[in-house]
Amino acid sequence: MIKRLFFGVLIFLLNVPMHGQGVMATSDFVKELTSNWEGERFEDGRPKVSDALLKRLKNIQIEEAWGYLKNKGYNNQYDGGWKILHPEQVMTGRVLTSQYMPLRPDYQQVVKEKGGKEKRDTIGGSNSWPIEILKPGDIYVADGYGRIIDGTLIGSNLGNAIYTNSQNGVIFDGGVRDVAGLLDIKGFNGWFRGDDPSYLKEQMLTSINNPIRIGRAIVLPGDVVLANQHGVVFIPSHLVAELVISSEVVGLRDVFGFQRLREKTYTPGQIDTKWTDAIKADFLKWIKKYPDEKLPMTRTELNTYLEKHYN
């Protein structure tokens, strides 16, 4: 009995982390969070969805992405009601997360000490820490719990630093300041809750690259963002490729359907409901003749998708 108890305690101690949680999630933890991803990763463990897919994603409608995710059981990936620097533009990119909370001195001291051990700048504000590790194509996504007054996570100085490192923009469940200066940063865009001239006050960074909540959405590091004037969708990395091509095929189906309606080959009721086998066969015949240069995907990708879903 004593021997079994001894070995039980020993096993427990061997499984207890020897070091406390840091400010930034470990690469192993990020890999565990995103274990369904099978491709390339960054050093911090985040999935590295290709630039080519990010570019194609810009042509996908929010409703199509939302519908695809909902059909997969991901019902909490969208949030709306944003102010946007350039609402006419679409932004896609890979998520780097950060979380902010109301300031508490003892906890702030712990965060500062942990940041020092992670070799972060402890002289300036900790709100620069996520910015310093952004990679090209990243989108800085921050949970500022909707705070605007005294909750301005960036102004034009940090905005310039963000764009220099990521060549992209931000999504903040919080505020920004100096909107005029942010608008002057060519190529930079931002989705945020509001703007205010106040500085960041009584608020502190608590974590980087951990799961966060943005409005009614849950966001993991390495998710992919699709953001436009209609809202923001956070897409799990392992679903991006199929989401993109399935949405692209929906677009091609629409082109086919509109053409056949103009030709009066089918009635609106026939096109706007589940297709018969005859209409499916007609679509497959039509798509074979569709010009390759007009396809949003390669012909090989299209054929693979059609063989899987239309046979």
UniProtKB/TrEMBL annotation:
Pfam families, per the entry: RraA-like
Gene3D superfamilies: Ribonuclease E inhibitor RraA/RraA-like
Superkingdom assignment: Bacteria
Record bears the keyword DNA repair: no
Signal peptide boundaries: 1-20
Keyword tags: Signal
Protein's recorded name: RraA family protein
Native organism: Euzebyella saccharophila
Lineage summary: Bacteria, Pseudomonadati, Bacteroidota, Flavobacteriia, Flavobacteriales
